[in-house]
Amino acid sequence: MKILTITGYKPMELNIFKHDDARIAFVKGAIEKRLIDFAEKGLEWVLISGQMGVELWAGEVVLDMQERYPIKLAVIPPFENQESRWPEQVQLLYQELLAGADFYKPLYKGDYQGAYQFQAKNMWLVDKSDGCLMLFDEEFPGSNRFFHEAAEKAGDDYPIYLITPADLDEIVEETQMMNEDY
């Protein structure tokens, strides 16, 4: 697999409302654990749309991993200025991510025009990647369900790799085991 799309929940869908919430480290840890495996098998590009939450965190992980692995980050938002209504702290994170990205290009010029832009973004990401990695819980699909449906429609030739709540629990346990005070 050379090109991987990463997506997942928005922070509020995970009950995360602060940019420095400690649980973000566990999500990032789970993403990194999976990305290392892909990178060691030849992954070249990670694609994200740059939405708040899992995608931004995944972008941070990719940028951190670039010192050890030759993977590149592409940010393909559905339209320009997608961050304009986000909290200021998240906007700053997004701008830092764009500054570090190897490629950036919105699918549509101009600001938000309609839901079709999100549908087009999902189809484009599936079409341009070899598979996807999603933080996803089938019992609580949230806004992820739209990308998941687009990925499933791509058929058996498009692998969908999931980070599940059980995977996050495993990262929490691993982190606690490494902590001497635990």
From TrEMBL:
Instruction: Show the Gene3D superfamilies listed in the entry.
Output: 3.40.50.450
Q: Name one Pfam family in it.
A: YpsA
Domain of life of the native organism: Bacteria
Q: What is this protein called?
A: DUF1273 domain-containing protein
